[in-house]
Every structure is written in C-alpha cells, then in structure tokens.
Amino acid sequence: MEGLMMGTQLLISSLIRNADRNHGTTEIVTRTVEGPLHRYTYHDAHRRSRQLANALGSLGIKPGDRCATLAWNTYRHFEIYYAVSGMGAVCHTVNPRLFAPQISFILNHASDRCIFVDLTFVPLLEEMADEFKHVEAIVIMTDDEHMPKTSLPNVHCYESLINGHSDDYDWPEFDENTASSLCYTSGTTGDPKGVLYSHRSSLIHAFRSGLPDCFNLSARDAVLPVVPMFHVNAWGLPYVSAMVGCKIVFPGPAMDGASLQELIENEKVTFSAGVPTIWLGLLQYLEESGKNIQTLKRVVIGGSATPRSMTADFAEKHGAEVLHAWGMTEMSPIGTVNHPKYGMEDETPDQIYDRQVKQGREVFGAEMKIVDDDDRTLPNDGKAFGTLKVRGPSVCRAYYKEQRSDAHDENGWFATGDVATIDPNGYMHVTDHSKDVIKSG
Fold it and tell me: What is the pLDDT of residues 61-87, one digit of tens each?
C-alpha cells in the first residue's frame, strides 16, 4: 500500500526560498576579496540568485551542464551555489590549491562549460586557459571597478552580467535525484575522482547536519564557515544555514587569526567549522594579543585528528566546545561528530578531552562498520580494528564517469580506506589511513 503524502521533490532551490520567506531579513556578511565588508540579507541573496539563473541561461547554460568555481567563501559564491543547481545545472567547486595540471585535468574531465573565478585566481586560470576543451565563458567574480586586464577569452564581469538580467525567474521542478554539485577528491592515488551529489543527497545531508547531535544549528546562530566552499561544499554549511535561517559570516580570503577574531567578535559568531591548522593560528593570535572570542560556543574540527591541547584551550580559555568530526568527500561529507551521550553529564574535563580525541558517533544516515581482511564484521568493543566501511543516502555509489569502483562492494558498502575501532558507545576512532580523508587542500 502506498502512502498518501505529497510527492514534493527535495530540491536545493527550496532552501533559498525558505530562507527568503522565513528569514529574509537575516544578514549574510562577507569579507570580500576586494577588501571591504559586504552586508546583505537572504532576501537579497535569493533575488540575485534568480538574476544569475537568468544570466546563465543567456550564456547557453542548460540543465545538466557543469559550471566550475575557483573561489573563496563569499556571498557571490553562495549565489552561484543556488543559481547553478537551482536551474538544474551542476555546481562544480574546484580546489585552487591543487597543482595546475590537476586543476586542468579536473576542468576537462568534468566538461565544464563555464568557470566562475575570484580575482585571486585569475592568474592561475590564465596559465592553463589554452588547455580547456569545453569552456565557453569565464565570469570574473567582481564589479566593473575591479575588473582586471586579462588574457582569458570570453570573459564576463559578474556584477555586470547579473545586473543585465531580471530577477523574474521561477525555480524549475525536476527529479530530486538530479545531479546538483560535483567535487573531486585528491585523497586517492592516480587522477582525482569526481563525486557527483544529488539534490536529494544534499538536502538529506542538510537535515542531518542540523540535528542536535551533529551541528545543532538554529535561527539563533551566526555561522562562520572557515572550511572552504571548494572543500565538499563547505561541509554542507551553505545548505543547512539556509535551511534553519542562520546568520552567515563568510571570511573571504582572510584566514589569519586576527581577521577571524575580528569577524567572530564583531559579528557575534556562535558556530564555526574548519581544519586544525586554522584553529591553531587563531588560538596563537588570541594568546599573543589577549583578545577574546566570547560569543563562539561551538567549533567543529575535522580534516585531521584534533589535538587534545586544542580542545582544552578552546574550552578552558575561551568557553567554546570543540566537536571533533570525521567525513569524506564521498560522504557529502559528515559521517561522525563527537557529542556526549546520556549518562556522560558527570564527565571530568580530562574525560571529555580523552573522548574528543575520537572522531565521534555516526550521524543518522551514515551507517558504518569495521571489517577484517575477509570482510567479516568485527565487534564494536573498542579493541578490534579493521577497515571502516560506510553506506547511506549521502554516500556516493560510484565515481563520476567511472563504470565501477573497487571501493564499493556488492552490498552497497563503501570502503573508506581508513582503519578504525568502534567502542561499545559507538565512538569511532581512526587509527590509521590508507587514504586521506577531508583534506585542507
């Protein structure tokens, strides 16, 4: 018997529509590539995203086409996220920290028809422009005043492009399993591999991310996505923030301790996420300057193991809770977050710091197990260690343009390449790597 619920499709455009409708006056703040702070609202972001969707149509971009970005975390990048996927095309975020031959390979392998590029990365793109096989338009993400002289062909100015188009655009309805975004993982041997996310997988990941035992976000939070938007969709933060209505503070290219502290204090940031190296720089700056980050309550750290001393410094000196997380490009990326369970209320600080060394418990929708060399499931006793496998609606079932993958088995499990233990409380601890996980780039 079939249920009688509406068959509304889970589409990324519904997130920005929701943010406009229910949180339209909430701010999105950016430290721009050009320098000054930029402020506007979800209502403005939605309007400009619709303008961009019309502009992309005028460039000949159609559903299914790939549009690449080489860009920092900014409001324009946020608009591209929603305009490209919202119209049915694929937003392909490219890590500009890769070697030029890797970037060229990725752009050609993805058959990108359009590239959005921040001012910082125009020289990088100029070096490889002759190698592009499919690119028909390059959009420099700035205004007329800051447009550079460039040898790049078929160049457009972002602001001029969208200002020439109306915001009269109705987001199309289509199957939720349609591809929405594309990221390449460089954590494997050989050429980078493409992970193609769907609207459905991205929204399910956003639902999961907002859960109390994941990022625990609400409309009362101000989120600072330090993790790059070219790094697994900034761990999904641009999606879950729009879903729940968080204020967003984009750091742009300024990732030094002084710049981050200023944003956290001035914009009253309550939540942030990034890799340990970034937080090390912030903590060092706070120690040397004597300044503080009073509003920051939760810090998600992933990408590599969180040092025990970092957890202690955030908690004891700044009153911020560190949440150790783990995931992969192939998982959208969140797999585990280290929250306490019922009955752990009386943990001592030392017990908390010891627990936080582990990567955490699985978040619903990211089922995991450890297996031995014969693929037999091992016990969750905290002692047995084996290959970590995962499956779920936000885990890739194949790599882009590959017929088969040795990492996927016949029962739908994906071998992460990590060796881990899982204890009786469900806390997973990575003990060794045969491939890198969420990388800082």
Answer: 999 999 999 999 999 999 999 999 999
Residue 175 makes CB contacts below 8 A (sequence gap 6+) with: 9
Report residue 407 as tokens.
């990492």
Class (C level, CATH) for 13-27+39-185: alpha beta
pLDDT at 439: 40
Give CA–CA dist 110/142, Å, rounded.
25
The pLDDT tens digits for 8-28 are 999 999 999 999 999 999 999
3-class DSSP state for residue 88? coil
Q: How far is the C-alpha of 147 from the C-alpha of 363, rounded, in Å?
A: 44
Domain-wise residue ranges, the chain: 13-27+39-185
d(CA 362, CA 211) in angstroms, rounded, equals 12
Nearest-CA neighbor of 302 among 231, 239, 222, 197? 231
Residue 77: phi, psi to the nearest 5?
-60, -40
Q: What is the DSSP string of 302-368?
A: -SSPPPHHHHHHHHHHH--EEEEEEE-GGGSSEEEE----TT-TT--HHHHHHHHTS-EEEPTT-EE
Q: What is the pLDDT of residue 434?
A: 61
Beta bridge partners of 421: 429
